[in-house]
């Protein structure tokens, strides 16, 4: 396997938490994850104590430590779910057989719609991701690998329609287009700087820009 190829998604696996044997503990784990998601969405996860999380999850501190061990494990589980959701979304949208008889502009539109849907409501998760990446080199490397995995999957589909791409440097443009899209969505999700656009308008404008940049036409 070439060094640049990323066939494994090990970069999206941060922590393994055994599924509790008891139904009550499994339900508590689900509530802890939901409470964590809510705290992240409200930008309050860092300040929240284990007691706060347990109360929000309508559980006990003892159950929290028994099921999760510590707060950092919960944080990693939440980030892991985001990574794996992105991988699953990209894997689904880049299945080559569904695009063999369709145009590239249809793929670009569907791709951006999928990405916008994955990012929706994830402002807190993105903030947590950026914070951890700023202080953890290993995690930062995982973020880079995730972005590169996405780029490789998307570029493979675009290349299968390369006769529709008229950019003077198509391969470089394909790679750049994916990273530009991810960067724009990261920035928008954290800052809301494109908040004047509805979700539909955001998809339309990002699609228009991408198609124009790649100079896509029959």
From TrEMBL:
Keyword Nucleotide-binding included in the entry's annotation: no
Domain annotation HTH tetR-type: ranges: 26-86
InterPro entries recorded: Homeodomain-like_sf, HTH_TetR, Tet_transcr_reg_TetR-rel_C_sf, TetR_C_15
Entry-linked Pfam families: TetR_C_15
Presence of keyword Secreted: no
Gene3D superfamilies hit by this protein: Homeodomain-like (1.10.10.60), Tetracycline Repressor, domain 2 (1.10.357.10)
Coiled coil segments of this chain: none
Regions recorded as binding DNA: 49-68
PROSITE patterns for the chain: HTH_TETR_2
Keywords: DNA-binding
Name by which UniProt lists this protein: TetR/AcrR family transcriptional regulator
């Amino acid at each position: 396997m070439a060094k640049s190829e990323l066939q494994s998604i090990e970069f999206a696996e941060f922590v393994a938490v055994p599924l509790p044997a008891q139904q009550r503990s499994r339900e508590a784990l689900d509530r802890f994850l939901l409470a964590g998601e809510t705290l992240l969405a409200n930008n309050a996860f860092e300040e929240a104590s284990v007691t706060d999380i347990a109360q929000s999850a309508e559980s006990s501190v003892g159950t929290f430590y028994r099921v999760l061990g510590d707060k950092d494990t919960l944080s990693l589980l939440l980030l892991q779910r985001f990574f794996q959701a992105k991988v699953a979304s990209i894997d689904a949208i880049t299945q080559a057989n569904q695009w063999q008889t369709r145009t590239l502009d249809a793929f670009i539109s569907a791709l951006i719609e999928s990405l916008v849907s994955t990012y929706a409501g994830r402002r807190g998760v993105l903030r947590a991701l950026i914070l951890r990446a700023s202080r953890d080199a290993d995690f930062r490397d995982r973020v880079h690998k995730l972005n590169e995995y996405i780029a490789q999957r998307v570029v493979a589909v675009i290349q299968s329609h390369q006769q529709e791409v008229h950019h003077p440097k198509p391969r470089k443009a394909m790679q750049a287009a994916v990273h530009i899209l991810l960067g724009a969505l990261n920035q928008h999700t954290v800052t809301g700087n494109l908040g004047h656009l509805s979700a539909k308008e955001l998809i339309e404008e990002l699609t228009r820009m991408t198609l124009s940049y790649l100079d896509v036409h029959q």
